[in-house]
Amino acid sequence: MKAEKEKVTAELQLLKAQVHPHFLFNTLNNIYSFSLENSPKTPGLILKLSSLLSYMLYDCRAEEVLLEKEIEIMKNYIDLEKERYGNKIEISWMVAGDVKDKFIVPLLFLPFLENAFKHGTSEQVESPWLSVDISINKQIIKCKMINSKNTYVPVNINGIGVQNVKRRLAFLYPGKHELKTNDEGNFFVVSLLVELNDKKMKEHAFLPVSSSVVENILS
Amino acid sequence: MKLRCLLIDDEPPALKVLASYISNIDGLEIVAKCKNAIEALDVLRQKTVDVIFLDIKMPKILGTDFLKNLSHPPKVIFVTAYRDYAVDGYELDAVDYLVKPVSFERFFKAITKLNRLVGQVAPTAVVNSKDNSEGFIYLKVGRDMKKIFLNDIVYVEGWKDYVKVFLANNKVLVVRQSISATENLLSDHMFLRIHRSFMVSLDKITGYNGVSVQLETKEIPIGRLYKQIVMERLQAH
Q1: Which residues of A are less than 8 Å from B137 in CB distance?
Q2: φ, ψ for residue A191 (rounded to 5)?
Q3: From CA A200, how far away is CA A182, in angstroms rounded?
Q4: I want to staple A106 with a disulfide (CB 3.0 to 4.6 A). Which of A65, A213, B188, B236 is the partner?
């Protein structure tokens, strides 16, 4: 029983770890290209990357993170990606409901967001756009991500990132999540609903003092 | 009166960033920039300092140790790449603990806190515009992709293989896609399917009863299968 549990924990750690390098190197590459041109955008991008890194390296060691923080990181990621595609892509961003004092397993939405950017922008699309619509109702969080796409190009959503999230959802929110994907021709919808665990943040065995904790201590 | 700042950091670029932030805020002036604790002691002996911006990991003497040895320490804001010292910072009564790289916004927050502590009026702020953009979607109308703000949509009526989207300015768009596809596209917390053939914007509802929903210009029936969900949502709205 204990061995089984340890095995699951180890796998979860690994799955979580796989999310990181990919994002980071993509972003670094963007920043590199901006720095080559001495773009004034470089400093802002570095700060955003820094906050993404700090999130992945420190905050995400905990089993659960503040929902507010996860949403902030999504916004950060969007800003970074937006720069990468120039301002060609239009973004609709909506957050409704009370995000405060809720905890969620980290990095569940990011892989879908990454997919949305990949499919919504890299292929020939007339007016590329992307929508993130997060609504929170008590312990239920629903995140709907829509991206424009080329009608005739099917979307492959079985990449490693998404498979990985599916595994994690099955482990961490068994019977408490719902993932739907719909290819509607000129747009693609991913809708992920998660019923958050109704408890306070679990023990932070892995967590050194994170910046958010520090702010609480000092304020 | 301006708050007199002493900057201590062994890395010149770090000092440069702090200095440039400080120069952008009224009410702060730099007394000296020091590369280590020894230099800083000299400055403290000769000049009045209101606040120290202090790095922690420095050769020879740690910033925290330096601070512990001051008999009348000024206010301190730690600026460090290490988050592990935060507890020490707390014990040493630091005003704030900034983790590098520090954004101007975060730095400004620390200064606001500092001003509150020393009883100064809040400094003039560089106001950040909120980026809560209005939600929108794109719909294919004829051959064009049209950008539609969600706030402009009053209701959607589904026909066999197309939908009519009724806008607040009384315009009607005909879009070649099913109502289910449209339902997928629209935000769940703003729109509600109330009938096999109708979706309405919750904000545009002016009244309702057991069988229908009223909008400013139209009354729409509630489908039998949707009734329970619709009533729950409308009562909660």
Answers
A1: 92, 129, 131, 146
A2: -125, 120
A3: 34
A4: A65
Confidence class for position A25, pLDDT limits 50, 70, 90: confident
Residues 69-128 of B with CB under 8 A from A: 83-84, 86-87, 89-90, 94-97, 99, 101, 103, 113
What is the number of residues in chain A? 219
Search chain B and give the residue with CA nearest A96. Answer: B189
Which of A187, A209, A218 has its CB closest to that of B185?
A: A187
Q: Is the pTM of this model over 0.80?
A: no
Interface test with B, best of A131, A142, A181 (most B CBs within 10 A): A131
Q: Which of A61, A1, A4, A53 is nearest to A27 (CA)?
A: A53
- Extract the tokens encoding B35: 């590369």
Residues of B in contact with A211 (CB under 8 A): 83, 99
Nearest CA-CA partner of B54 in B96, B4, B3: B96
**Cα distance between residue A88 and residue B22, in whole Å:** 36
pLDDT band at residue A207 using 50, 70 and 90 as cut-offs? very low
Chain B positions touching A133 (Cβ under 8 A) are 135, 187-189
- How far from A88 is each of A43, A155, A173, CA to CA, in Å? 21, 21, 36
- Write the DSSP string, B100-118: SSPPHHHHHHHHHHHHHHH
- Tens-digit pLDDT profile for residues B15-47: 999 999 999 998 999 999 999 999 999 999 999
pLDDT tens digits, residue range B62-89?
Answer: 999 999 999 889 999 999 988 888 788 8
